[in-house]
């Protein structure tokens, strides 16, 4: 498939200079052509992770579309003179693609999180989009020995989109495995989006989203798990960006 989007590099991580609207249009081209796509979003934490994980870096940089899912990445692009147009928030992109699927009749599959969370997510989205065709649901609690069974379940469901709510790097490894088996759908990692959509955790207020403080809100929700990632990780990312410049 011919690429029309411009790609930049920050700290050896490739990122597409796309708006959310341009991303949706490009993703739909993959769906219509039945071409496999791993739709990736990177933030400062993910870029830090790539610096320590060559296998993950190879998978991420090999994705067909890589969005800047973090305000710090967009700011870094401006500082480095490479100008990404905007942050493409994963949860917003996911919901836009679900709306597109309901409108166009595309088939969706939800994979990840606890069973009750993924079921509630599917129910909420079905209520919001009555025409949505959900062809499968599976929780994210399984081991590597179960990957083939998961692959067969997804293959038999024949979705156009698989939204994956599993933590990195396991999510990337699983998607890479299933694509190598020949699945030609769009895989999108959605982080904690299932938790937010299902209502199990709140999303940051709109004013915090607009001020690029969503990461701070998440850190306050789960300080023990996320403070090191956001505060220490962001400091490392900023330091590395200064070095790159």
Describe the structure.
Helix 11 runs antiparallel to helix 12. It is built from twelve helices and eight strands. Helix 8 links the parallel strand 7 and strand 8. The longest helix is centred in the last third of the chain and has 22 residues. The protein is globular. With 245 residues, the chain is an alpha/beta fold. The strands form two sheets. Strands 4-3-8-7-5-6 form a six-stranded parallel beta sheet, with helices on both faces. Strands 1-2 form a two-stranded antiparallel sheet.
Which features characterize this protein?
single chain; 245 residues; alpha/beta
Task: Give a topology summary.
Elements: E1 7-10, E2 13-16, H1 20-33, E3 37-42, H2 44-50, H3 54-61, E4 65-68, H4 71-79, H5 90-104, E5 107-112, H6 115-128, E6 133-138, H7 147-157, E7 161-165, H8 170-180, E8 186-189, H9 193-198, H10 206-210, H11 214-221, H12 223-244
Parallel strand pairs: 3-4, 3-8, 5-6, 5-7, 7-8
Antiparallel strand pairs: 1-2
